[in-house]
Amino acid sequence: MAAALPAVALLLGCCGAALASGVQDQAEQFFRSGHTNNWAVLVCTSRFWFNYRHVANTLSVYRSVKRLGIPDSHIVLMLADDMACNPRNPKPATVFSHKNMELNVYGDDVEVDYRSYEVTVENFLRVLTGRIPPSTPRSKRLLSDDRSNILIYMTGHGGNGFLKFQDSEEITNVELADAFEQMWQKRRYNELLFIIDTCQGASMYERFYSPNIMALASSQVGEDSLSHQPDLGIGVHLMDRYTFYVLEFLEEIHPASQTNMNDLFQVCPKSLCVSTPGHRTDLFQRDPQNVLITDFFGSVRKVEITTETISLDRDLTVFEKELPKDELATEPLKYADQLPVAQIIHQFYCSRGDVFGGTSFRFGMRLTGKCESKQYS
């Protein structure tokens, strides 16, 4: 008996270790489960008709993320100018991204959250950091959390370390980096993908220092980001080269696609873009090869599967037992009968006296539902 005790103790110890290991595996699997929701902040910072392509860039990305499942409630769209209603537009209420007016990216259901002079550096930073007035409507808020993957796309005119907003102000790479750090400290994102299409775009992510950020740019420092597809009918270039080839790539993506971020890095070589696109992944904790395109451009929906059968129809007998007899419906009512306006008016006048033509009348309600009038001197 004494010799068997160590064996029993060893067996119990092994069982305890296995149980602890199983709990640890479950915890690790939970924390590896990734994000639970997706958001997109799409910003065009340019005004005036000759910057038509920047609006088309932003609307093209908007069209792609909606097609892949991100709803308007999770998209903050900022357009500094309304090209669809510009007097110079030969096709009102349209914005085209391909020559010969093949693809209208404006569509019938575009929801612009910030437009015209609402697109400012201050409003953009307030959206990112959540420092907005309480009266701000929900559609103008970035309601993300620490389980959110956020796509931030920006396009416009820029330079070494800055991006212009409407030719009146600019945001610097330091301000943008500090805004992302505030987002991280306030637990407003899980992972963040930053894409910018502007001249010297790589300078905008040089100062980033917050974790879980992956950044892409259309050009290196000292390079211009070039336009693409001039259209003689509209009279301007329709898109920028980098965004054009990114959108061609996204058109081949579907919600169940296994395409990863490394494929996105290769969509616009210098032979096509003329400029040299860049990317930065040192702040990102995962290998880009293991990051799906749909982790940022698509929508994630957590579905919990239950093994129990749930009946949506309640037992009528139980329902009748719960209600008092006077509350049971004796006959089905039409919609118009559910609001007995005439009866309400009669009850109102039957509860008070009115004077007509100098004679006082008192109304009393009979059981038949009609009013009885009595004359008083």
TrEMBL record:
GO terms for biological process: attachment of GPI anchor to protein; GPI anchor biosynthetic process; proteolysis. The active site is at residues 157, 199. The keyword Signal applies. It holds the Pfam family Peptidase_C13. GO terms for molecular function: GPI-anchor transamidase activity. Gene3D superfamilies: 3.40.50.1460. GO terms for cellular component: GPI-anchor transamidase complex. Pathway: Glycolipid biosynthesis; glycosylphosphatidylinositol-anchor biosynthesis. Residues 1-20 form the signal peptide. Keywords: GPI-anchor biosynthesis, Signal. InterPro entries: GPI_transamidase, Peptidase_C13. Belongs to the peptidase C13 family. PANTHER family: GPI-ANCHOR TRANSAMIDASE (PTHR48067:SF1). Heteropentamer. Part of the GPI-anchor transamidase complex, consisting of PIGK, PIGT, PIGS, PIGU and GAA1. Interacts with GPAA1. Interacts with PIGT; this interaction, via a disulfide link, stabilizes the expression of GAA1 and PIGK and links them to PIGS. This is GPI-anchor transamidase. It comes from Anas platyrhynchos platyrhynchos. The gene is PIGK.
